[in-house]
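FAQ: What does the model actually see?

It sees only this:
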Amino acid sequence: MTTTGTTVTTTRTGRRWIGDWRPDDPDFWRAGGRAVARRNLVFSIFSEHLAFSVWLLMSVVAVSLPAAGFAFSVDQLFWLVAVPNLVGGFTRIPYTVAVARFGGRQWTIVSSALLLIPLTLMIHALTTPGTPYWVFMAAAVTAGLGGGNFASSMASISYFFPERGKGLALGLNAAGGNVGVAVVQFAVPAVIGVGVIGAAQGEGLWLHNAPLLWVLPVVAATVCAWAFMDNLSVARTPLRRQIEALRSRHAWIIAVLYIGTFGSFIGYSAAFPLVIKAAFPDMAAMWIAAVGPLVGSAARPVGGWLSDRIGGARVTSASFAFMGLGTVAAMFGIAAGSFALFFGAFLVLFVFSGVGNGSTFRMIPAVFRAEAGSAPTEEALARSRGRAAAVIGFASAVGAVGGFLIPRGFGSSLAATGSIDTALWVFLAGYACCLALTWWSYQRAPRAIPV
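And it is asked to produce this:
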């Protein structure tokens, strides 16, 4: 990409690489950098949105498996819900490295196409009578590939935007993906009751419609990434430099905080339909579970936007405080047998996990920008961006493990006590620890870092 007068001309090879990228230069940004960044953001969001939908697809399908004639235990169902999150966490580190090695556009094409694997497996499992449990587990494992897309997408987009706008850009990118969780939970209950192709499983259930619904959109996302996205040469951070970033204590601190924010969001999103069914068996309108991920997704860019203005550490601390209150309120709702209180409490959890997602991620580039000094050179800025991108992938990988621990916590609590209260007490203690860690690391005077 070159700047000519007041316009920016993008020079692309056959692999669509942009060699000159200076988003923090106001003239460069106004002359066309903004337009290129926004175009890549739009198609990154499209791909990531579908990846989240596929990632969480099993969490909605699992609720209807017993009614469809698949006699799996409650604990087995929670395993199907939890495993994609665990796999998604492990894939995020190699997915982040792949952006630096192959380019954001190239890896978006590949990662989008890979989503067809779990969709195909799920279609087979749901259309074959008597499918054994291990086949559903294989579908759940490969659905975890969708979780990896988040890390590669965020790492790629972090390079496109200037420092002053990263919070909102990363928040929008993440929110677009997170909304896929709500969409899948709204859409699946609607389509599985409509007989279009094949025979029904159970009484009036066409569960295979659920994976079929995402096949064409995934193909479209793959084609759009090929046609409209770009690679940035500045994103090609050597693996050695990415590993060096993990030597920073901030990488590990923020990763732990992200377990509390994103891990809560994705874990509650995956488990919420089964949790509602366990705590309030008479609740028939299971689509209502989609409201939680929807409000959590909408809150994520708010967290980034607030962090751009008042600091990520402050917003993150407030998020953990409100999540603790929501956890306590949920336990009161169960004790009182009040679905309204229980559901409202979980909405608080979803909203502030979303806000915390945005604020925690905004802290990453801010921390490494602060380490570059008050008047950094262009080389120092480039090094800080590379370190931040590596930590984005690492933190998102560790955070996704929370998405495994929360469903398993609920499953173990139900198996041991018949209630989810024990799990909620453990989560409450976790939020208290995360609040203390945020204050100690980033707000405690005189060692506070401007993040």
